[in-house]
Amino acid sequence: MTSRIIAIAVDCRDAEALARFWCQALGYPSTRRWTDAYGREYVEAGAPGATSLVFQPVDDRKSGKNRLHLDIAPSSGSRDEEVQRLLALGARRLGDDPKVPWVVLADPDGNEFCVLPERGADDGTAP
Asked: What range(s) does the Glyoxalase-like domain occupy (predicted)?
């Protein structure tokens, strides 16, 4: 027996706003919401065949570097065009090292992620 990833949970201050950003960034068409036994409302962003992102509200602000981050790539167009699109949606640029093929951004809640050049579905090269 093995396990599979069904969602990636993201701590955030405003689950609704962050879900909206990531739905626009990834083209996810839907969100669903639920409330836990403590009254916290979670927002899940998803698309058929894609791993969901679950935004869970927390009181504390992000501090330090993420231990886990997303690497994303445009489905069409260039990496730089995608970076510009994400910046217009509310992301912030954190790093742009010309020696590596990715650009480091932060989402509106400060969570780091990387934008890589477009890849084919079977491209097994690592960043």
From this structure: 8-116
